[in-house]
Design a protein that fits this description.
Number of strands: 6
Structural class: alpha+beta
Shape: globular
Strand order of the largest sheet: 2-1-5-6
Radius of gyration: 14 Å
Number of helices: 3
Strand content: 25-35%
Largest sheet: 4 strands, antiparallel
Order of helices and strands: HHEEEEEEH
Distance between the termini: 41 Å
Amino acid sequence: MTHALCHQTLQRENRQFLHSGGRSEENRSLGFAPAFMDIATGTVYRACFRDGRPAPFHLLDGLPDEVVARRETSGSVASLKPSVVTGFVRKGRFFTRSEAASWMDEAACRD
């Protein structure tokens, strides 16, 4: 069963990808920007703050209603549709966290 992406999912993924290149802090300098993809539609969404400014990390609050599954009473995003995955955009291409980590590993071998 697929679960909706929420804040706890982001925390778990950040622990899972620590020191792998699959985190914003580790790949930003090589042009990766945090993003989300709705795999049901193929639409990619850049992580943004509520006001639309690009966020330097994965943030749920700036995503549009079409991918939001549930909001808190305050209006903050509580969870996303189960078809949404985290990743990054680099030069117009979406990378899952695993793909970004692999790319970073290969880049280290090229140096």
